[in-house]
Amino acid sequence: MSRELILALNPRMQFTRIAVYRMNTTVFLKKINHKPEELEGFKSFADQAPMRAKIILDELKSNDIQMDDITVVIGRGGLLKPVRSGVYKVNEQMCEHLSGNEYGDDVVNLGGLLSQTLASELSNAQAYIADPVVVDELDDIARITGRPEYKKKSIFHALDHKTSARKFAQSIYKKYEDLNLIVAHLGGGISIGAHKKGKVIDSNQAYDGDGPFSPIRSGSLPIGDVIRECYSGKYTQDEMLSKQTGKGGLFAHFNTYSGYDVCKMRDAGDQKAAEVLSAMAYQVAKSIGAMYPVFGGEDVDGIIITGGMAKDEHFVREIKERVEKIAPVSIQPGAEVLGALSDYGNMILRKETEILEY
Ligand SMILES: Nc1ncnc2c1ncn2[C@@H]1O[C@H](COP(=O)(O)OP(=O)(O)O)[C@@H](O)[C@H]1O
Ligand SMILES: CCCC(=O)OP(=O)(O)O
User: Fold this and answer.
1) At what angle are helices 110-121 and 49-62 packed, to 10 degrees?
2) Total domains, the chain
3) Where is the signal peptide (predicted)?
4) pLDDT, one tens digit for every residue, the chain (358 residues)
């Protein structure tokens, strides 16, 4: 059996999930929580990389992981220039773009930066990312907006979308490339994508654009009101961007980053939580419905609902009731991000995947 180890990383706002794999066996799995006081004082998410990397290294060492055996460090890919789906070696330009927030400031940028920082501390490791949030397979028609200077960008949870869609295809003994699917990832961000024969030809711009509001993002807003707020003199540009991308949605209503907490409030009888969650489900359902014409009259073979909030049966039921006439609905609760990264890691080790250059 190969001694080589894969270290997979999924940095989130308040924690970092890490796992170590030897082939298909999980050797180590940990959710490292970061206390609010540890995260205070950093100007951007990218600046947290050295601090989080040190904690991860200490965690691996104290759990007797054979550091010299780690040859692949692979993280979720961040906000970068548009790229094709697949595995990328982390290079200098990628690190510059991620650390400089060239395409936006989000915790997901830490995926590539942590991979690079950790690989540089290990004697035999190379850093990678896979299916970053900027995988771009949009049809040209989906890019055009009502202002020639603005193009719709492809920003969605590509890793979970592709993994869930392939898993669904396998479950019905079909190839992903032969199916038309609508995938809804319900996580911290919410992305709804039209997967036509293996390509995501349309999606909401799930970071700073349109679509349903999510646990942390505002989604589509009445744009005139937003423009007036921008010019009110009350907020800086960074504050306005943060309201859209990290402090909108359920956070703006309830002051928590956790969709789980708001579901618990609803279950405990909180009327406002029930109303806002129902509105979120309503917006998700409308966005799923909006993908139907994208297939140009072809049948939709399935709607896949995935991500952390797909674990909440009440929330999922409210979406399902509104969309199940379009196509059969398959629920895949939770997002298997670390597992998906380890699959890519194994493909790297077996030389079964092209390593793309950013
Ligand atoms: N059992 C659950 N019920 C409702 N929401 C949940 C549950 N478990 C996790 N969540 C929420 O899912 C969101 C995270 O989704 P996830 O797909 O894991 O991550 P990501 O933010 O990367 O998309 C968080 O808002 C979290 O609180
Ligand atoms: C960064 C855009 C994609 C997205 O929203 O992902 P998360 O659900 O992981 O926040």
Assistant:
1) 50
2) 2
3) none
4) 789 999 999 999 999 999 999 999 999 999 999 999 999 999 999 999 999 999 999 999 999 999 999 999 999 999 999 999 999 999 999 999 999 999 999 999 999 999 999 999 999 999 999 999 999 999 999 999 999 999 999 999 999 999 999 999 999 999 999 999 999 999 999 999 999 999 999 999 999 999 999 999 999 999 999 999 999 999 999 999 999 999 999 999 999 999 999 999 999 999 999 999 999 999 999 999 999 999 999 999 999 999 999 999 999 999 999 999 999 999 999 999 999 999 999 999 999 999 999 9
Q: Are 288 and 182 a contacting pair, CB within 8 Å?
A: yes
Question: Which residue's CA is the nearest one to ligand 1's atom 23?
Answer: 187
Check: CB of residue 16 under 8 Å from CB of residue 52. yes
ipTM rounded to 2 decimals: 0.98
Burial classification of residue 64, based on how many CB atoms lie within 10 Å of its CB (0-12 exposed, 13-18 middle, 19 or more buried): exposed
Q: Rounded to the nearest whole angstrom, what is the distance from the C-alpha of residue 265 to the centroid of ligand 1?
A: 15
Distance of alpha carbon 226 from its chain centroid, rounded? 25
Q: Is 6 in the pocket of ligand 2 (CB under 6 A)?
A: no
- What global pTM score does this model have? 0.97
Same domain, 60 and 168: no
My answer on whether 102 and 29 are in the same domain is yes
Tell whether ligand 1 has an atom less than 6 A from the beta carbon of residue 187: yes
The one-letter amino acid at 126: Q
Domain-embedded: residue 153: no
SS3 label, residue 342? helix
Residues 76 and 119 in one domain: yes
Which residue matches tokens 């079909």? 174
Do 117 and 216 belong together in one domain? no
Range of the domain at 162: 158-333
Q: Is residue 152 part of a domain?
A: no
- DSSP track, 304-324: EEEEGGGG-HHHHHHHHHHHT
- Starting from the CA of residue 154, give the closest ligand: 2
> What CATH number has the domain bearing residue 250?
3.30.420.40
**Separation of CA 3 and ligand 2 centre (Å):** 33
